[in-house]
Amino acid sequence: MSTKPLDDSARVRLARLALSAARKIPAVIGADVGPNGLCVTGDPPRGVLPGVSVIAQADGRYEVDLCLNAKLVPLQQLGEAVATAVRSRVAGEGLDVLLGTVNVEFADVLTDAEIAAEQERAAEQERAAEQERAGERGRAGEQVRTVKQAHAAEQAAGRAAEEGRTAGELRAADEAQVVGRAERVRAVEKAAEREALAEVTRERVGAGEGVVVVVVKTAAAPSSAMSPLPTASDRASESALPGDVAARAPSMPTSPIDDEKQP
Hints:
alpha+beta
């Protein structure tokens, strides 16, 4: 009978079916890789399947070898029971046309006390492995917390620096406003001083008692403005000014003695 070659996925499936059927027998307590460590089947997602190997036969079918650990029972009958269970399981999955010889060997036979000790040892190994995994998770979590804390500290420092720059900018703006107000006040004061100097001032000049000369001080006329030439009437008024002033001045009282001395 010809068969088509078995691809890797079907080969791994056949190995899994055989190993699963064997482990369901009550007297079977586990699987073993054999004395040379060759009783394994590669399982890419999980690594390897220990205790079972699938090998091509000359007739095109595939031989299944199982290496098991069992209780202290008659091994001949146990081996036959295992082979029957494997054939039944493979046939139920529609792969019986590919199944050739089924070989069963026992790597170790244990008493009930040895089985209990083996189970306790396996449980201890599992607890140790779980503790190691928990430690790794804890270390990973601590690293994550450290990274988060460093990131938070960096963000806080950045915010503080930004707030410091903002506060400094606000202070600088306030100082600039104060300086601007002071400059405006000084400008207003200077303008008031110039306006006061430009106002008309009156001074009393002692040109004789009862004579008041009014001097008007104003801002200088622009250089472009030309003063009018004096007219003849202006020169006449200027020449008569001393007499007019003398006429406006009050007469001094004369002494009676002086009157008598006059002839």
